[in-house]
Amino acid sequence: MSRDHSNVNRRTYLTYVGGTAATVGLAGCSDNGGSGEDNENGSDGSDGSDGGDEEQLPEPETREEHLQRANLRLNQRAPWIFLNRQYSVYGIASRLGWDARRDERIEAQAISVTEGEPSVAITQSSMDSGLDPHDHRETPTDNIVVQAYDGVLGRNADGDIIDALATDYERLEDGRVRFEIRDGVTFHNGDELQPSDIAYSVNRVVDPEVGISSPQNDQLAGVTGAEVVDGGVEVTSDGINPIVFSLFASYCKVVQQDWIESRDTSAINSDMNGTGPFQVVEYEQDVEIVYEPYEGYWGDAPEIEELTIRSASEASTRVSQLLAGETDLIVNVPPQEVSRVRDEDTTEVTAVPSTRVVFNAMRYDVEPFSSVEFRQAMNYAIDLDSIIENILQGFADATGQPTLEGFVGYNEEIDPYPQDIEQAEQLVEDSGHAGAEITLETPVGRYLRDVEIAQAVASQIDELSNVSCEVEQRDFASLAGEVTSGDIENMPHFYLLGWGNTTFDASQTIIPLLTSDGALSSYQGDDEVDELMSESQNLPGGN
Amino acid sequence: MALGRFLLKRGIQGVLVVWGVVTAVFLLRFITPGNPVTFVAPLDASAELRAQIAADLGLDQPLYIQYVDYIGGLLQGDMGYSYLRGTEASTIVFARVPATVELAVAATIVAIVIAIPLGVISATRRREPADYGATLFSLVGISTPNFWLGIMLILVLSVQFDLFPTSRRPIGFFETFTFLVTVENGLSVPMNVGAFLDGLRTWLWHITLPAVTLGTYFTALVTRLTRSGMIEELGQPYVRAARAKGLPESLIQYKHALQNTLIPIVTVLGLQLGTLIGGAVITEAVFSWPGLGTLVIDAINVRDWPLIQGSLIVIGTGFVLINIFVDSLYAYLNPRVVH
């Protein structure tokens, strides 16, 4: 097994780079605030100067250092109002033992039953959008599919990479990695897993010529194909692809080539034939799916003898089902329902920080957000702790960078912006945009308490004496359509969005959202960030 | 013969209405923001992948070609494939129809069984406690929001007293009959009657709270209609004549006055039933009832046009059929309508 690790003393580096730089960044806000960067750059829509009098930092060497530096830079340039990291909050019957995962997946194999029948019912917010493991992107479908399909690699509850259908993996050269395939694995139809099935599964995701245009194409970013070589599977990528193992730990479930090729779309979406711990007994679309353990499973047999997954879109209905003993595990318990679940003897609440960050993007190319001082001021205006405490009942963490704690590239020396009204008002004055009227566009019901968070943000900004802010509630479809249009001109100026990143790597947040080439970037033209990210993608050192 | 012509005319109008619905939904694509590809593709998908997905879904074609293709398919019974689910839209839509019809009919039955006697009692005992009670009930019923009532019923009757299940529809009404008879080797074999009764009980147990929730507003409305209709009828000269003739009061009330009152009630019941077929979105959501209403809302949220269109065709057809039925019933009750 070959994994790349930094030889640099990370702590020493961070103490110097992160600590110094953070000080420089904050100092820059107050000392250089009046430099009027926006005036220099506002006309051409660029993002202000680099803060030329900032202290020179040592060049980052490892990939992780590049990512940490990018996070520091982004914290200073404040392209977002950094809000919160969401928690996944579950309600669970006390008779079950289960550790919630950070990637929001529920792998029922990890559930133990301490009391009562060994059958477990899980209620999600919705059912699957079809059972094809390569033709969906959303978590509810993932939760249904992962019970029956395995990946090449996997993750434990903490997000660390573990072996799955591959027993060993190594980087052969830049852009080529090799997986050794586990022997004796069988699909639920009894056929033995072949290396060619794994190569086919990879190609089915990345190559539209192989069956479908998989929406998971970008989940295997950079991967160009796979082939069987000497009994193993070799995967090729464009460039070095440092996070390739991380991608395979989260994505690309393995299907049987013959089984898929002999079925039409409807059939593939209505049944499952994987190598996973559970096999499908009964499936009623939109209603429920029932599984039993697969006796030929290659790993440890699950404790559960019958698993049922259902859905209830209303959170209060899910909670009522749990309290009435009709289900054993429910997802997305809203903060206001937590006490109902906690107060009951037979049920508990379990929460875990998720991989989703919620933020307010500010378009770098339009006034007043083209001013770095104005953007920083927006961050200083927010009382994040109060939002987390009062709106999210403590089920969230404050953030000060796009990358979440525990991810490769997280810079632990960066603190969230503190609320400082005076500083915020001064920065607004310095930006030359005093009296600005801004509108925060937010989706409704897409993220946990999104509208309430947006309203709190807007009212706190509105409390500044020199800025007024209001909220516009938007249908997610139309807001997302504008954000993903590929043209920054179509994007809203100021909007709330959430971003899930289950690769546990900073690059998969920063590159799409905050670089010049990002598919939905609201922040472009920052050469330093672009360069750091581009270099990081050509260095080894993924998760 | 006149009734036949009337029904034929109504049938042709119905086809035109459904065709109009399909066309209107197609035109809505022009003005509805949000591209289905946004939901099928990941947010950070490349332009190439988006284009590829759009091509796979046929969305790269001009709208009129998509329209002609769709109508052509529809004439052959093909509603297309759901963008997001990859399965046939017709399969998904028709799977939801029984739940919707069951709930609509059950709510209507709740309304009829409670509202008509209540309305009659209220009208015949004007300004007595029974009348005040019925009036208060209908006022509260009309004013109570569905979602609140549903949640309260769940909290009190399901969670607190464990009298009913909180939600779900584990079995359909017609599915229960599969326990009764099955076909083996071409022969009908009687099955377990006990299982049939168990299935029926499970179904009834699960549909009660959603039906009461949905039917409450409806009950209140029909109670008020019945009351005012009865009061009007009871003041008519023919009632005075009947009383003068010495007919028993119950016969006057139920045989004569109520029958005449029923004409507008039948019309309202039919129209309301049509509305319920269109989906009782909130009730379905609160009780996790897999009906058409939530399907349409979910499909609209992700711009899954084949599902939206398929659902609207079914809802439109249901609405048209109910209206034809109500019209013909009305025509039967009042032949002047036909002319």
UniProtKB/TrEMBL annotation, chain B:
<dbReference type="InterPro" id="IPR045621">
    <property type="entry name" value="BPD_transp_1_N"/>
</dbReference>
<keyword id="KW-0472">Membrane</keyword>
<keyword id="KW-1003">Cell membrane</keyword>
<feature type="transmembrane region" description="Helical">
    <location>
        <begin position="262"/>
        <end position="287"/>
    </location>
</feature>
<feature type="transmembrane region" description="Helical">
    <location>
        <begin position="307"/>
        <end position="333"/>
    </location>
</feature>
<keyword id="KW-1133">Transmembrane helix</keyword>
<protein>
    <submittedName>
        <fullName>Binding-protein-dependent transport systems inner membrane component</fullName>
    </submittedName>
</protein>
<dbReference type="GO" id="GO:0055085">
    <property type="term" value="P:transmembrane transport"/>
</dbReference>
<dbReference type="GO" id="GO:0005886">
    <property type="term" value="C:plasma membrane"/>
</dbReference>
<feature type="transmembrane region" description="Helical">
    <location>
        <begin position="12"/>
        <end position="31"/>
    </location>
</feature>
<dbReference type="Pfam" id="PF00528">
    <property type="entry name" value="BPD_transp_1"/>
</dbReference>
<feature type="domain" description="ABC transmembrane type-1">
    <location>
        <begin position="97"/>
        <end position="330"/>
    </location>
</feature>
<feature type="transmembrane region" description="Helical">
    <location>
        <begin position="103"/>
        <end position="124"/>
    </location>
</feature>
<comment type="similarity">
    <text>Belongs to the binding-protein-dependent transport system permease family.</text>
</comment>
<dbReference type="Pfam" id="PF19300">
    <property type="entry name" value="BPD_transp_1_N"/>
</dbReference>
<dbReference type="InterPro" id="IPR000515">
    <property type="entry name" value="MetI-like"/>
</dbReference>
<feature type="transmembrane region" description="Helical">
    <location>
        <begin position="203"/>
        <end position="222"/>
    </location>
</feature>
<dbReference type="InterPro" id="IPR035906">
    <property type="entry name" value="MetI-like_sf"/>
</dbReference>
<keyword id="KW-0813">Transport</keyword>
<keyword id="KW-0812">Transmembrane</keyword>
<feature type="transmembrane region" description="Helical">
    <location>
        <begin position="136"/>
        <end position="159"/>
    </location>
</feature>
